[in-house]
Amino acid sequence: MRKVYHEITQIAGNIITVEATDVGYGELADVTSDNGTSLAQVIRLEGDRVTLQVFSGTRGIPTNAEVRFLGERLRTSCSEALLGRVFTGSGIPRDKGPVLDDNMIEIGGPAVNPAKRIIPRNMIRTGIPMIDVFNSLVESQKLPIFSVAGEPYNEVLARIALNAEVDIIILGGMGLKYDDYLYFRDTLEAEGALSRSILYVHTASDPVVECLLVPDTCLAVAEKFALDGKRVLVLLTDMTNFADALKEVAITMEQIPSNRGYPGDLYSQLASRYEKAVDFDGAGSVTVLAVTTMPGDDVTHPIPDNTGYITEGQFYLRNGRIEPFGSLSRLKQQVNADTREDHRTIMNTMIQLYAAYKEALEKQSMGFRMSAWDLKLIKYGTIFEDRMMNLAVNIPLERALDLGWEILAECFAPEETGVPTRLIEQFWPTTVATADGSGGDGGDSEERAA
User: Fold this and answer.
1) Which of 2, 69, 59, 71 is nearest to 34 (CA)?
2) Three-class SS of residue 407?
3) Is the dihedral of CA 277, 250, 93, 179 positive or negative?
4) Spatial contact of 388 and 357, defined as CB atoms under 8 Å apart
5) Residues 136, 128: contact at Cβ < 8 Å?
6) CA angle, 57 as apex, 51 and 58 as ends, to 5°?
7) CA triple 207-210-212, angle to 5 deg
8) How far apart are CA 199 and CA 172, in angstroms?
9) C-alpha angle 188/159/175, rounded to 5°?
10) Helix (H), strand (E) at residue 165
11) SS3 of residue 289 by DSSP
12) In the chain, what's the furthest Cα-to-Cα distance?
């Protein structure tokens, strides 16, 4: 029998405090009053002083409410019946479907033992050239998308959800506007991807503490499916809202604030979620791609700053494009040597030329005289941004590599690119005119070398 307590000693925000014994950290409790029953979870133990966060908020809860500890941690259902469904952060159906209570699993557990992991070695294709060609997404990778408010990061996640070559998509929304929630649901349903997707959505109007449940629930379910042999991609948006929810709870609990008011354990809180990315030996995998909006486009803000230390690179989304400079997938070398022979060459050559294009733009803006090579670079950069960096481009990796060769051939002579002759003979297009219509001349090549 679990004890029942009838006196709440303190109520602050969504946090209540009771005097209780024989209670475990993370244990669940029912808080019952005349207004109904709310679920709460233990988040601090100080002797007999027990602090709980109430998921639905404390509004209407009096100090004489009944607190009954349940003797178990938070759990959620995990089965094939989840596919195509939409839930709140606490696992309550949002789509008016039936409540699922079979195959319950505990959420918020530890990360997988490193001895059970294998080295990442498989690429996840997304159909986005700036990812597939230049910063390949790898199974079991954890990558953030650094962005700012107003950028189309949710549209990018939806594109990835539609195109990613995985078995299951789990989308976790935190602090979403209702329109964004409907966008995800309707887009996945219209394109036939909802049947392989599970959505856990916390909207901006929901209790803030439910936001904290979204990553843990998504990752617990993903891990269970991965152990069953599934390749799972977890998409999280927006981890800044998650960190802000941590901050709000920490302030309510009167914790000593750290940088910009965030809790001192922000790094550990983020790491405990991101480190759930794993490729199991003999089973499936969990890959995590999470949006982090940077307040004021400040990468030194505590949230992106801590995130960058944990993850294996990042994607920068600026001006509606994934920027090649700053974006990095530290595991891309694990897979891009096995895709096509020319993958690494195209990747390196096009980025080098794009960097030269940026220098030519700066030269032009300062009023310097433009050489023929500079004009070629400006033409190349404009075409590259339009045909490859544009997020509307949705093509397979092989087509993206072919497109890279076509862009090079349209702007430069073969010898101007610095590409090995062996690859030029094999991949250089024969039907696309070069920049000067004659295959280029040695003068420009010498100027570039200089």
Assistant:
1) 59
2) helix
3) negative
4) no
5) no
6) 65
7) 130
8) 6
9) 70
10) none
11) strand
12) 89
For the CA atoms of 61, 64, 69, 75, the dihedral, rounded to the nearest 10 degrees, stands at: 0
Do residues 440 and 415 lie in contact, with contact meaning Cβ atoms separated by under 8 Å? yes
For 346-358, letters b (16+ CB in 10 Å) and e give bbebbeebbebbe
Residue whose token pair is 């997020």: 391
The two three-digit tokens of residue 249, written as one number: 């709870």
Residue pointed to by tokens 């209407």: 60
DSSP strands (E only) in 308-421: 313-318, 321-329
The angle, 0 to 180 degrees and rounded to 10, between the axes of the packed helices 266-274 and 239-252 is 140
User: Hunting for tokens 């490193």 — which residue is that?
Assistant: 114
Q: Quick one: DSSP state of residue 22?
A: S
The average confidence (pLDDT) of the chain is 90
Q: Which amino acid is at 294?
A: M
> How many of the other CB atoms lie within 10 Å of CB of 421?
10
- 10-residue mean pLDDT profile of the chain (450 residues): values are 83 90 89 87 90 86 91 90 91 89 87 84 94 95 94 94 95 94 94 94 88 93 95 95 92 85 93 93 93 93 95 93 92 91 95 95 91 95 94 94 96 94 93 49 40
Give the Cβ contact number of residue 385 at 10 Å.
Answer: 15
* Alpha-carbon span 74 to 251, nearest angstrom: 23
Query: Which residues lie closer than 8 Å to 26 by C-beta, 6 or more apart?
Result: 41, 42, 43, 73, 74, 108
Q: Answer yes or no: are the C-beta atoms of 199 and 86 closer than 8 Å.
A: yes
Handedness of CA 397, 398, 403, 408 (dihedral sign): positive
Using the structure block, give the residue that is written with the tokens 């990796």. 397
Token code pair at residue 30: 């029912």
Q: Are 283 and 138 in contact (CB under 8 A)?
A: no
Helix residue spans in 76-152 (DSSP H): 129-132
pTM of the model: 0.89
Cα–chain-centroid distance for residue 379? 33
User: Do the beta carbons of residue 10 and residue 19 sit within 8 Å?
Assistant: no
Q: Is 313 left (phi over 0), alpha (psi -120 to 50) or beta?
A: left
Query: How far apart, in whole angstroms, are the C-alpha atoms of residue 232 and residue 154?
Result: 19
What is the phi/psi pair of residue 196, to 5°? -110, 15
**CA 99, CA 69: separation in Å to the nearest integer?**
22
Q: What is the DSSP letter of 6?
A: -
Residue 408 to residue 41: CA distance in whole angstroms: 58
Residue whose entry in the numeric block shows the structure tokens 């190349």: 380
| Identity of the residue numbered 393 | V
What is the four-CA torsion angle of 342, 343, 345, 346, rounded to 10 degrees?
100
Structural domains in the chain, sorted by start: 4-73 (2.40.30.20), 76-334 (3.40.50.12240), 343-449 (no CATH)
